[in-house]
């Protein structure tokens, strides 16, 4: 453990970024695709995690290097110290945004599935990854999400067991201009995955010539 002085924000003044000797172009040529972040945002129960896992499976089977970062999994380790207050939600997304950016820099297609209810937090995640960031709005009516309720959270939120639950007792700020919108009310899982695969092919696969 370092001292308080060593861990203070002022210590950032002494940081010197280490430049990789491997370029993004070299990584892309080795992998056959660019690295980047597919950031799935949406209400609980909208289908983010389901689609993330299905897309990862397809990409892996097709020879892509892909990995899923999921809200519940990350909160079990990296962000186990955070709750669900607005401040903790912001810190949760800040950390995940930085991790996703590092993974994208390594050349992976990083699929981040997070409610990420606040526009400002998603903007911060986009800033971390720059042009490699792709905001995917996974949308469904609140009534549809609540009827799915795969983890039973809506029921607990309605009974007051879960405070600050997005869509019930905490706000969700819908993206106004996402890079891609996936409507899980209008399309089944297979069609949604097809739309995501088309997007990946268009934005991550290296063009010949």
Shape field: globular
The total domain count is 1
The main β sheet shows up as: 5 strands, parallel
- The percent range for strand residues is 5-15%
Instruction: Give, in spatial order, the strands making up the sheet with the most strands.
Output: 2-3-1-4-5
What would the CATH topology be?
Rossmann fold
- Say how many strands there are: 5
First-to-last CA distance: 52 Å
What would you say about this model in short?
With 209 residues, the chain is an alpha/beta fold.
Describe, in plain words, how this protein is organized in 3D.
With 209 residues, the protein is α/β, with parallel strands linked by helices. The protein has one domain (23-203): P-loop containing nucleotide triphosphate hydrolases (Rossmann fold, 3-Layer(aba) Sandwich), CATH 3.40.50.300. 41% of the residues lie in helices and 13% in strands. The chain has helices at 24-31, 48-61, 71-75, 86-105, 119-129, 142-148, 153-158, 189-203, and strands at 36-41, 66-70, 109-113, 133-139, 180-183. Strands 2-3-1-4-5 form a 5-stranded parallel β-sheet, with helices on both faces. Helix 2 (48-61) packs across helix 8 and helix 4 (86-105) runs parallel beside helix 5. It starts with 23 loop residues before the first helix and ends in a 6-residue tail after the last helix. Mean pLDDT is 90; it is low at 1-7.
């Amino acid at each position: 453990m370092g001292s308080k002085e060593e861990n203070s924000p002022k210590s950032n003044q002494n940081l010197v970024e280490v430049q990789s000797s491997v370029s993004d172009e070299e990584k892309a040529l080795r992998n056959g695709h660019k690295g980047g972040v597919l950031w799935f945002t949406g209400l609980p129960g909208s289908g983010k995690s389901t689609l993330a896992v299905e897309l990862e499976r397809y990409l892996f089977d097709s020879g892509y290097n892909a990995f899923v970062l999921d809200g519940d999994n990350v909160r079990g380790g990296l962000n186990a110290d955070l709750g669900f207050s607005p401040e903790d939600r912001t810190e949760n997304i800040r950390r995940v945004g930085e991790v996703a950016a590092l993974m994208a820099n390594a050349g992976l297609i990083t699929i981040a599935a997070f409610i990420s209810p606040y526009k400002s937090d998603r903007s911060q995640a986009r800033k971390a990854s720059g042009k490699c960031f792709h905001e995917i709005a996974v949308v469904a009516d609140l009534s549809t999400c609540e009827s799915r309720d795969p983890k039973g959270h809506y029921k607990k939120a309605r009974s007051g067991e879960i405070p600050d639950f997005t869509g019930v007792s905490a706000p969700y700020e819908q993206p106004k201009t996402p890079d891609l919108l996936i409507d899980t009310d209008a399309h089944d899982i297979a069609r949604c995955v097809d739309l995501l695969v088309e997007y990946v092919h268009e934005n991550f696969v290296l063009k010949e010539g």
